[in-house]
Amino acid sequence: MKKSFAWVFLVISSVVYSQYGYRDSNMIGVTLGVNQFQLQTSDLQIKPANGWNVGLSMRGNFYNDWDGIYGIQFSEYNCKVATLNALGHPEEVNLKLPCANITFQFSYKFIENHLSVEFGPMVQINGKFTVDKAFETNTIKGNTTYTVEDITKIGNVGVYPVVGLSAGVRNVRLNATYQYGLTNMLGKLDGSMKGNASIVSGNVIFYF
Question: What residue ranges of the chain have pLDDT lower than 70?
Answer without folding.
Answer: 1-25, 191
